[in-house]
Automatic annotation (TrEMBL):
Protein name: Tafazzin
Ranges where the record places region Disordered: 1-109
Source organism of this protein record: Capronia coronata CBS 617.96
Biased composition (Basic and acidic residues): 44-57
Organismal lineage: Eukaryota, Fungi, Dikarya, Ascomycota, Pezizomycotina
Feature: compositional bias, Low complexity: 21-32, 87-96
Length: 509
């Protein structure tokens, strides 16, 4: 019979570890250690960082106990729970790896159009320690602007914001825009751009025919003086000087210079009339580049008030007699000597009256002596006799010069001292006398009063004192504007003139 198959593998005993097998295992372990590569410097640094993080003290775990209402906690006299531990990476918990947004701060136009901007957003005066905020620059009449948020409005804002780039690369196409679109774009540039590129040249002057310039009626040059133009540069852009020549046989006039046309050769006999003819230079003729200009804005920022020149303004007004709207927002006090406000000298001239250097000074408003300012405004009123709209926003420091009659100095005829409201400016219908700024309420941090500290803060009291002074100044300027309005209306009523509308702006609420 065949033998039965037996599973001997199940009956096999495990081998005992003999010294021979132990020696083999040790030799294999040694060979594996020799084959393992050595650790590099980076491995050692990572290991040290792991050990450092492992040894750092960990914040206590957050309490999972149920919270108790504050009122019940106060009744049961239970101490308040400890504050939560700061998050990893915060300023209090350790160095943060988050970086600030690179680059300069966002421009003013971005903040003005943002939905998160405050309602009182505007220009803050740097010299007033952030106590005033500018509310408006200028708003010339007859301005056709697209609806806010429309495609044309967004495109014009974008072009005005990047005006420096467009003036450099698109100068060949800007002159081809329609006249109305150019005037609107100029107003957008006055608000949304702070570049130093002159917008008048690529829009209205370079390679533009005189017939197209004659169609321009509105130039909004707000915030341009002191940024991309001066008074002399503006005069060169608005006018062109041509030398007017005249020829004749008779002798030159006394006030003209003559230049005799000499023959090519002195030996040649030339008895014709051309040899004895003379050419006279009568003088430079000023030709306006914008013949039908009606609305002009020369409003400026209060920080650039030193650029304003009343002497240059009077020379411009003598050539712009057809203006019907003019904005002089934030212009300084009218004077011919702005640098001599704190200087006054009397020069003795033998045989004549002494010469006084310096017109208006720093005490003009306290003494109520507006003789120089009233004289400048009188000359301006005689030049701009077609004016119907005048904007003096932000000029509250010299509103009193508009109603100065010289009664305190014993003057007999008040019409000769101030502006000619019934003469040159008899057609003025709207006068804007807004304050132009609003006081800013200081931000006061609400801190609990400690027993070892006084109940008031010196710095907070100082801020509130300055704020109250600014409010008083605002109310004073507004009351002066109302006084000017009453004076002008009574003056017009006495002479049977037109009604004049005076705008004050919004009051403090």
């Amino acid at each position: 019979m065949p033998k039965k198959h037996q599973q001997r593998a199940l009956l096999t005993k495990p081998q005992s570890s003999t010294p021979h097998t132990l020696s083999l295992s040790k030799s294999s372990a040694s060979t594996s250690q020799n084959a393992r590569p050595q650790r590099t410097v980076n491995d050692l640094i990572r290991e040290s960082r792991r050990l450092q993080i492992r040894n750092e003290p960990r914040p206590p775990p957050a309490s999972t106990a149920s919270s108790i209402p504050p009122a019940l906690r106060q009744v049961l006299d239970i101490p308040s729970p400890p504050p939560p531990a700061p998050r990893v990476g915060s300023r209090l918990g350790g160095p943060s790896r988050l970086r600030r947004i690179p680059g300069p701060p966002p421009p003013r136009s971005w903040l003005a159009d943002s939905i998160h901007a405050s309602k009182e957003f505007g220009w803050v005066a740097a010299d007033d320690s952030n106590r005033r905020v500018q509310v408006r620059s200028s708003n010339l009449p007859e301005g056709a602007f697209p609806p806010p948020g429309s495609l044309q409005d967004l495109v014009l804002k974008k072009i005005a914001t990047d005006w420096g780039w467009h003036a450099e690369h698109d100068c060949d196409y800007l002159g081809l825009l329609p006249k109305n679109l150019k005037e609107t774009l100029l107003s957008y540039i006055a608000v949304y751009n702070e570049a130093v590129v002159n917008p008048l040249k690529p829009l209205f002057l370079d390679d533009i025919e005189q017939e197209e310039r004659d169609e321009v009626r509105r130039l909004d040059l707000s915030n341009g003086l002191g940024v991309w133009a001066t008074m002399k540069q503006l005069e060169r852009d608005l006018f062109t000087r041509h030398a007017l020549m005249a020829s004749g046989k008779s002798g030159p006039p006394a006030a003209a210079s003559s230049s005799i046309l000499a023959p090519e050769s002195w030996d040649a006999d030339n008895d014709s009339d051309e040899a004895t003819s003379t050419t006279f230079t009568i003088g430079p003729q000023i030709v306006p580049n914008f013949l039908n200009l009606k609305h002009l804005s020369l409003a400026m920022s209060p920080t650039n008030s030193k650029v304003a020149s009343w002497t240059s303004l009077l020379s411009l007004a003598a050539e712009l007699r057809t203006l019907t709207s003019l904005s002089l927002a934030y212009w300084p006090q009218p004077t011919f000597t702005p640098l001599a406000a704190s200087t006054r000298a009397v020069v003795d001239v033998p045989g004549s009256r002494p010469v006084i250097y310096g017109g208006s000074d720093v005490y003009t408003s306290y003494d109520n002596n507006w003789r120089e300012a009233a004289g400048i405004l009188r000359t301006l009123s005689r030049s701009l006799y077609c004016l119907k709209w005048l904007d003096l926003t932000g000029c509250g420091d010299w509103f009193a010069a508009l109603q100065w009659t010289g009664s305190s100095l014993g003057a007999s005829n008040s019409e000769r001292l101030g502006p000619e409201w019934n003469g040159g400016w008899r057609g003025l219908e709207t006068l804007v006398l807004e304050v132009g700024w609003r006081p800013v309420l200081p931000a006061v941090d609400a801190k609990p009063i400690q027993l070892d500290q006084p109940a008031w803060d010196v710095e907070t009291e100082r801020k509130l004192y300055r704020y109250n002074k600014e409010r008083e100044r605002f109310v004073e300027i507004r009351s002066t504007a109302q006084s000017v309005a009453r004076y002008l209306r009574s003056l017009r009523k006495a002479s049977g003139g037109k009604w004049i509308q005076v705008e004050y702006g919004e009051d403090l609420t």
